[in-house]
């Protein structure tokens, strides 16, 4: 799958600078310090998303907190997802113009990711010129971010079992994720586009998208 439109930001930002990897949180817990040996207190091998969490943690795409936890059931914020997507796509955020959001300064730990995705049109702000970096990312918003970031072709109509997405502004993107086998919904008949995404869930969604994009 061609991701050139998004990845091109790396080249236009700085041809001479290596890609920057941005962690999810400045309050990161580096495991025991050995490469590939992350171990979070609250993520055991039996947890549904444990494999995805550890794969991304070992690649420095996501991190946990100082107390040794990952908090997989906490909601993902809009700022966090900007950093995650920028990192997994190896987008170089250097020299990308300030997007001008009223609530995002250069001191924000997710500023680079937010600026990069705003420029790419992957994650936009609101009509009042705010970005709301600390607001939770909904499942519908996540669908749009993933489809745009990984350059998937939107599916206007799909044979999905979801009865709660027809009136959603994200219906095409949700249909796309279903058609690609990236999501199965929250039940046999629902996707729940308006509920927040959890940190553990997002790890699995991101890895599935990456796998599909490479085929």
From TrEMBL:
Keyword list, A-Z: Signal
InterPro entries (UniProt xref): Cell_Envelope_Struct_Comp, SLH_dom
Annotated SLH domain residues: 36-95, 97-160, 161-215
PROSITE patterns xref list: SLH
PANTHER family named in the record: OUTER MEMBRANE PROTEIN ALPHA-RELATED, S-LAYER PROTEIN _ PEPTIDOGLYCAN ENDO-BETA-N-ACETYLGLUCOSAMINIDASE
Descriptive protein name: SLH domain-containing protein
